[in-house]
Amino acid sequence: MHPNPLFRSEDREVFEALIDQIGFGMVFLTTPDGPRVAHTPLMSTGDGAVQFHLARGNALARHLDGATALVTVNGPDAYVSPRWYDNRDTVPTWDYVALEMEGRVRRMAPEGLEAFLHAIIEKHETRMGGEPWQATETSETTWSKLFRGIVGFEMEVQAWRPTFKLSQKKSDAERARIADGQTTAGRPAIAAMMGMPGV
Prior knowledge:
Layout: H1 12-22, E1 24-31, E2 34-44, E3 49-55, E4 68-80, E5 93-107, H2 110-128, H3 140-147, E6 150-165, H4 172-184, H5 188-194
Helix pairs in contact: 4-5
């Protein structure tokens, strides 16, 4: 998390929206074999927890149950050029959005993992538009084989550490130029975040 309090937020709705929009993150844990990270789809439960699954053979899978872990979600990011500032006698920087969540992890029961998989499939299939793929199109044999190869987890978030570094130190006119410049440079997501309330 960036140390400047100007880049923080206490708005849980914004955090939940970020998890929902990105839907993917990293799980970090120090294991007896050293620090490890896993990349995984994420889904918020809406009541202060996030769910995810890992391949059974993942280096973290056998260590997570009962551990305190760190989950991060990376939002949009972009290089910020001094060309957009009133005073060009400075240096470039980087704007970015990131959310760190720390909490206790528990392994999900098979029925919880099953519910999570169906929910996340439905969410992402719906977002794609068109004719959605249905989990029922997978045969019981295939589903069971793949299901046995993964482990589901839920982390109860005990600490939320967001960073919304979006050129807040700059004037309104400069921020507008930065947002326009990012849009022109093909980074509309970071420009849109700059106009969001609560950040």
